[in-house]
Every structure is written in C-alpha cells, then in structure tokens.
Amino acid sequence: MSEANWHRVAATGEVFEEEPIRVQVGEEDIAIYNVAGDFHATSNICTHAYASMVDGFQEGDEIECPLHEGKFNIKTGEALCAPVTDALKVFEVRVEDGDIFVQV
Ligand code: FES
C-alpha cells in the first residue's frame, strides 16, 4: 500500500481513553479510539442499523453501540453480542511524532 493511502486524522493528545472521536476520510466515517495508550480505528457506523459508534460507550477494547447495545471489539471489529452479528470494518493505524494516521 502506498504512502498516499495514509491520512493524518488527529494528534494523539486529542484522543482520550473512552472518548473516541469521529473523523471523515474521503467517503469513510471513522471512529478513532485510545485503548490504554494504543490507537485504533473502526468504521463509525454500526453494522446493525444507523448509529454512530463515537456516541456509544467504550470500555477497554470494547465499544457498545448507543442504539441497541450491540458490542464490538475495537481492535478486531468482531461483533461480540446480539443484536450485532457483522464485524465493524477496522483500519490500520500508525502513530508518528504524536500524529495518528489511518490507512484508507
Ligand atoms: S444500531 Fe448498533 S446495535 Fe443496533
């Protein structure tokens, strides 16, 4: 994958644990999370219906959807409990000099 696919989305100091932020990269609506100092990115839109994951509740490496309380693993996107069955899309993240980049 070329450098052109990496996009700076935030500074590390802007993303706090359990307070994911929403960023837009092209067509992708993305949630950025801080999990114990490591940064991760998933699609911001729940796979069950239309809800924004950044409005949900993060606990460690899990995010709970604000609409019907489906949970996903932030690192893998895996759907963890009903009513969600499809994984969230995850994006590669890298950190350089205090900046967070996402591969889209
Ligand atoms: S919209 Fe997320 S669990 Fe229903």
Strand content: 35-45%
Distance linking N and C termini? 10 Å
Proportion in helices: under 10%
- Structural classification: mainly beta
Spans of at least 5 consecutive residues whose pLDDT stays below 50 are none
> Which strand order spans the largest sheet, edge to edge or round the barrel?
2-3-4-8
Secondary-structure arrangement, i.e. CATH architecture: 3-layer Sandwich
The third-level CATH topology is: Rieske Iron-sulfur Protein
**Main sheet attributes: strand count, strand direction, barrel closure:** 4 strands, antiparallel
Secondary structure: elements and pairs:
Layout: E1 6-11, E2 21-25, E3 28-35, E4 38-43, E5 57-59, E6 62-64, E7 71-73, E8 90-91, E9 93-96, E10 99-103
Antiparallel strand pairs: 1-10, 2-3, 3-4, 4-8, 5-6, 6-7, 9-10
The structure holds FE2/S2 (inorganic) cluster.
